[in-house]
Structure formats: structure tokens, C-alpha cells
Amino acid sequence: MQLENSFLVPVPVDDAWKVLLDIERIAPCMPGAALDSVEGDDFTGRVKVKLGPINLTYAGKASFIEKDEAAHKAVIDARGKDQRGNGTAAAVVTAQLKSEGDSTRVDVLTDLNITGRPAQFGRGVMTDVGNKLLGQFADKLAAQLGETEAPAQEPTVESTVKEKAADAAATAAGAVGEVAESVAGVDGDTPIAEAARKAASTTVQAADAAADRAEEAKKEAAKPVAATPAARTPQAEPEPIDLLDVAGGAAFTRFAKPAAIGVGALLLVALVVRRRRR
């Protein structure tokens, strides 16, 4: 069956394109899903589903089979099976991104094939479930994208001390240089005056070099410290998708008639048994 769904992402289309291709970033936003590995365009994962008292875990592999950055179109082929052998699932998912002002609309076309217990849901129920799950995904993704960026890093105590020390060194070097220059200008041909001029000249050069080093140290201290990239937090085990809960009224309507027939049959059997006992 083919399912069509749409949702909005609160970022421009170019940014949305980059985000939606980052599987490790968006996987935690998908209800019931857990990402196990990513290698290039291939990734593996699991989806947990609850159908009444039955718990199913679909494990499988998916791959990007098309990435058209110019058209903002991506196609994913995904295949998996229930770990207990209760069914299989295969899907080709086409996502088309379209700009809507400062936001992006994502149109999703899913060519879905399901076997096993979940296949008892008809197209109407599956569409309803798909819309609700994508709605939850879009809400989580929007919340993630809406988080404010970390504020600029405040200068550390160490960098502040280094900067002040560099300022002091530059000031001291400048003062020494001025004194040395005044000494270097002393007149006279006496040995003491000559020695003073040589010493002053050497001191001026040393003071200039010290001032240069102090200035470099000041610039280095003023540089912002690169933030250490945050380690990726391992994804917590996801809660299973409760299909009956998500489907809500649609599922009840779908199964109301069979349930009524079953209850009627039970009542009829009970009535016959009671009459025979009499």
C-alpha cells in the first residue's frame, strides 16, 4: 500500500535538508525507533511495536538509494522482520522537501508492504497511524531544532590571568625600554659612558623582544577556547509504539464489528447451554 504524509520543519529548506540526512540526529525523534549503526549511506536499527498484549520488535537495515540535493529529494529503502518471526516489513520512502518561507514542508510517500499481525490494519488505519507518528516525530524534531544555541563561552580564569600578565609584561618591557633609551643617549667618551650605552642598547633590544612576546601572549590569551565537542549520548531503549493507542477511534471502528460478532456468538452459546441444563 502507498501512504502519503506531510509535516513542517521550522528551518529553511537547505538547513532542513542537512538535518534530515543526519540519521544519528533524527533517529531519537522517531517514536519506537532505535539506531544501532551507521556506515555511510547504510544504517541498521530497530522499531518496537505493541499490538494489544503482543510486543513486536522489527530489526532491519535501510539505505539511502537517492540523494538529490538540488531537488531536495531523498529516497530510502528499508527492510526488516520481527525478531520472533511474526511478520516482515519493507518500505521505499521518498521524502521531498519544499520551502515555505522560513520553514520547510516535508512530503513523504511510503510504498509499504507488511506481513504478519500488523497487516490486519487496513489502509485507513495505517494512514491514520502514520500521520500521528509523523506528527510526533515532527514535534520532537521541531523542539530539537528550536533549542537555543549554547551561549558564547565566557573567558576562563586562566585566560584572564594570562591576558593580564601579558599586559603587565608589555608595560614593564616598555618602561625598561624607555629607561634604556635615555641611558643610551648619554654623552661622553668615558669608558663608563660607553659601557652604559652598550648595555642600554642591548636592554632596548631585549625590551622590544619582550614587548613583542607579551603582545603575542596577549593575543593568544584573548583567543576563545575551542569548545570540546559533546560526546554523543547513547540512545535510550525506546518505548514501543502502541498501535491500538495511536490508532484510537480508527482502530476501534475497524475492529468493532468483528468484536460485536464474537460477543454475540459467545452469548448465543451461553444461552443454548443454559436451556439444555433446564
Return the CATH topology of the largest domain.
Alpha-D-Glucose-1,6-Bisphosphate, Chain A, domain 4
The major beta sheet can be summarized as: 8 strands, mixed
Mean of residue pLDDT? 72
CATH class of the largest domain: Alpha Beta
Number of strands: 8
Helix fraction? 40-55%
The CA-CA distance between the termini, in Å, is 53 Å
CATH architecture assignment of the largest domain: 2-Layer Sandwich
> Which shape, going by the Cα principal axes?
elongated
Number of domains: 2
The CATH homology group name of the largest domain = START domain
Low-pLDDT parts are 148-152, 227-232, 255-267
Order of helices and strands: EHHEEEEEEHHHEHH
How much beta, percentage-wise? Answer: 25-35%
Counted by DSSP, the helix tally is: 7
* C-alpha Rg (nearest Å): 36 Å
Helix/strand/pairing category: alpha+beta
Summary tags:
transmembrane helix; 47% helix; 8-stranded mixed β-sheet; START-like_dom_sf; alpha+beta; 278 residues; Alpha-D-Glucose-1,6-Bisphosphate, Chain A, domain 4
